[in-house]
Amino acid sequence: MKKTIPGYIGLCLLILVVLTGCTREPQPAEQPVVSEKDSANTITVSIDGSTFLPDATKSIKRDFSEGLTLKKALLNSGLVDFTADGKRIQSVGEVSLDSSLSWAVKLNGKDIQQENWDIELHAKDEVTIYVKAADSSGEGVVYQTTLLKVSGGSIKPNLKRQYAGIYVQECTVRDVLKSSGVVRMSENNKYVVAVENVIPGMNERWVIMVNDKELMENGLDMKLSPRDAIKLELAKVS
Q: Quick one: how many helices (H) and strands (E) in the chain?
């Protein structure tokens, strides 16, 4: 009988170890790691292209810090450029607007006047940049747009801009180029002299395309449809 006691004690110890292992609280190191960023210390900057520029819609988060102003947050987003006087938004991303449209900003769903760029933000604030018609009397109207794209091609690869404007019925390619403010036409309005003050060099020209199809010589008289995209690309003459 005495010979079996050690074996009995060993069995009891084994059961005790198993039970202890089943009931032991997990240590902090064994808890799952949560990598989710604390949203309490961020702000959200969103672009709402709506019906004007539906492809421009996006949203990003940026770190919040005390004393952060609305203007600083917009600049820090990497999306917004202001005019030289700092009073208006000139472009968002690569998109600028003609005189028929304007950029506007909402803070937590409320419109912000341009003179309030220095308003201080708080954690979790939501800033929304959107497009509206310059003529506020048309509020509530669903507008359609035309888009002008400018590309320096392989000659000036850093030149990439887009200009949006309200679509005008029966407007032509020439109408959009002239109203953009960045295209200089010849005196007879038959060809493009310069775009963004860039004059083609020898063996270069501005190629005009509509919906990625190059226009023929008389293509400037082509009438456009809503959402048509005109592209001007600097190219070598073969």
A: 3, 15
